[in-house]
Amino acid sequence: MGTRERIVDAAEQVIREFGIVGATTKRIAAAAGCSEALLYKHFPGKESLLLAVLLERLPALGPALTRLRLAAGTGDVADHLTAFTLAALEFYTRAAGIAAGVLADPSLTERFRTMLARSGSGPHLPILALADVIAGEQDRDRIDRKIDAGAAASMLMGACFHRANLSYYVDPADDDATWAAAIVRTLLRR
What we know:
Blueprint: H1 3-22, H2 25-32, H3 36-42, H4 46-56, H5 61-71, H6 77-104, H7 106-119, H8 124-139, H9 149-166, H10 176-188
Helix pairs in contact: 1-2, 1-4, 1-6, 5-6, 5-8, 6-9, 6-10, 8-9, 9-10
């Protein structure tokens, strides 16, 4: 394992143990067994390291979106969307700790926002990609054309985000798979 990977692994571990505020570069470097200077050689700042943890260590939405795109026009669209919904829920559940820490610090939020804009990334992109998948399935007459694809994608992703956040405070009444299937059935109801 290379130095960069060790740093990202250490950052994830330190964030889970101490939260964003406690995840100082000094603490992360110590956990990675390197100096802060070496950490900064691989990452220009804490924000880019947080982004690396989000993109590289958490269950990614990219592969789930790829599977959804590859399945377009085949099989049961509800099953495919349910699998994606579960992947999105897992992502949001695991990312909540990092997101909460970023949002709790206005200056960190602004720096993170600037970094996302410069890198052309952000939380809106999976919603746009999902909307494209839904629109494609509408073109194949597999999803009702009257549904607004963008609104449907926003509602599905918003529901995942909401359930992930609720799970930190209360135990859901139903299991995730049952919930995901119900969300998709509601979305696809004609």
